Amino acid sequence: MATPAELSRRAALFAAPAVAAGGLVLAGSSPAAASANETIKLVAARSKNSLSATPAFGTPFAMQLELFDANAAAAGDGSAHGIVVNVTPDTPPKVIVQMSLVLKLGFNGELHLSTEHPLVLPSPVDNPLAIVGGCGKYATARGEGTISYPSPDRINLTLNVRTD
């Protein structure tokens, strides 16, 4: 049978890894290791657009974008490319697009986005989009956001970006 001194020594030996592991958990939850979240609001103006006014199913398209921040200051540029994946029989018909966007945000890097939604112009509807990656400051970016079309030549983007 072990003496109290041996039990204390054994307890200390078994406790050391647990304390070390606990220390790692505490270190991982420190403010310095907290996730980096950022909400970015942009307005995009189409400088070029290959999508016709009455596109057919399967029509590919591309857009060149100029980006502005909430204060109307230039924030970068970008592009969108996609394909028409459905044209509904409604009157007027709704054009459903699947598209990828790349937003180049100056020297901070790029955000890469993906979405499928009705492309109704104009439309105040906030359509969901996914943040699927990026580069530079946004190399580990992910998250979600919305895209809307308040006028035929304007796109509003709200992006909730995580980079942890």
Automatic annotation (TrEMBL):
Major location (coarse): secreted
Subcellular location: Secreted
Signal peptide as annotated in the record: 1-20
GO cellular component: extracellular region
Keywords for the protein's UniProt record, in alphabetical order: Secreted, Signal
UniProt-recorded name of the protein: Secreted protein
Organism: Kutzneria albida DSM 43870
